[in-house]
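WARN  no MSA supplied for this record, continuing single-sequence
INFO  ligand: flavin-adenine dinucleotide
INFO  echoing inputs
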Amino acid sequence: MIAYLEHFVHGNDTESKPNDDVAGLEGAFHFGAPAAAAKDFGGMKSAAPLAVIRPASGADVARAVRAAARTANLTVAARGNGHSINGQAMAENGLVLDMRAMEEEEDHLSLSHRDGSLYVDVSGGALWEDVLKRCVSQFRVAPRSWTDYLGLTVGGTLSNAGVSGQAFRYGPQTSNVTELEVVTGKGEILVCSEGQNSELFFAALGGLGQFGIITRARVAVQQAPDMVRWIRVVYSEFEEFTSDAEWLVTLQERDGFDYVEGFVFVNSDDPCNGWPTVPVGPNQRFDPARLPARAGPVLYCLELALHYRNEDHPSAVNMEVDRLLGRLGFVEGLKFSVDVTYMEFLLRVKRVEEDAKANGIWDAPHPWLNLFVSKSNIAEFDRQVFKKILKHGVGGPILVYPLLRTKWDSRHSVVVPDSNIFYIIALLRFIPPPPKGPPTEVLVEQNHEIIQLCHNRGFDFKLYLPHYQSQENWMRHYGDKWTRFVDRKATFDPFAILAPGQKIFSRIP
Ligand code: FAD
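INFO  complex generated
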């Protein structure tokens, strides 16, 4: 192994010293490119690494980073579950760290109390679905803030934000961690929090893996409910949909729903984009006769959930749901609900994954687009994008729901629009691969058209899970936070070793 690294190093830079830092690895080292490390969920990029390391500990991660630092050109990418879209977890001719190997070393969680709150310490390579299962089975607690799909790693979502229907109340997942263990681009292992190495803590959260590799996170948890009333209500008018959604996200805890999301669907019987995608329970049917005559090419659905415990009386749950729904202006008769366990609710996208895997669409290219758009521009976005460009759907969910900026910490690296309420928009395309489906480039082009439209109309918006080809675009993305981003890079990863797949900085020899 070392000889191979030496060869690689000398082949490219005679000044670099061969190193034997990685010699003490507790985990495993694989030369070449195991296929998975060169691919991601997007299925549009491929970059083969020099080697894949399966770290057994933070010390292994540090060894790998230090080994790369002693060369002139090796880079290191932490790979969570590879669910990026644009090669962000890849390292061409570099080292890929398979972070999930660290999770496999840990089975038991440690629960801690501080200032009346509960926390669990989890590996950066843990899948959120495993965190959920362990938290509930060992302590009957659960993290407060989630993503819709839980086959993602803790480090992978904390490097972005981690958003779902709980974020209006608790903020993104990045707002729900109090301490991290991070391996910086200098190969140091540092514990950081608001009070200790705070700049690294804020940098790493939403930092696109640029400042350090998260090997452990302390995540806020709460008592897990037993059951969830899962509800969908339909709107024909965007203004009514947004006004109800915005009212719901401003309600206090115990006074509102525990989860608020929304989506756009096509006003037709299209099985992927239309009416059949709305019902949640068995034997429920969408009755289009209920729709008003003025309904346009697309419709809107609020997706809501209320948590409850087994001992809660059914009539109390019904009363609470009726009280809240009674204030909403959805189309009468287009309400769907089902009672499911809390685990079933949180793992609901697992079923989508299983179906998509069975019909080959999971492994097809996924030209997805995620945006944050200010409340002030969302009606125009609806008119120009949902009602025109996307009026036939995207072959999968089009999410749109409001978030509150007060729940986002501006000291973190992620950037969001300026307004107090902004919307997350996610075009989650699940299209059969060409020739059955349209060429992927056409869909990528449609994404660019939407981004360009946002620029041309001067929208206050940001890409979520951003991806750009040029540093100029990264500068525009970060705006007045760019200098801070660059300074943090110089401090924590001065040779730009980490997360090369984000294509923000070039490796400095
Ligand atoms: P990877 O793709 O493996 O890595 C992403 C980036 O983070 C890379 O740059 C990588 O180098 C870096 N990285 C990975 N691990 C670490 C670490 N430990 N320390 C530092 N850097 C690291 N996002 C949401 O917010 N909400 C959702 O509901 C949601 N649903 C999704 C559903 C699906 C089916 C998919 C494919 C994606 C979804 N996402 C969602 C996006 C997802 O959060 C990001 O793509 C996330 O990065 C994926 O996590 P991962 O573990 O696969 O990370």
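The first strand starts at residue 28 and ends at 31.
INFO  checksum written, moving to next record
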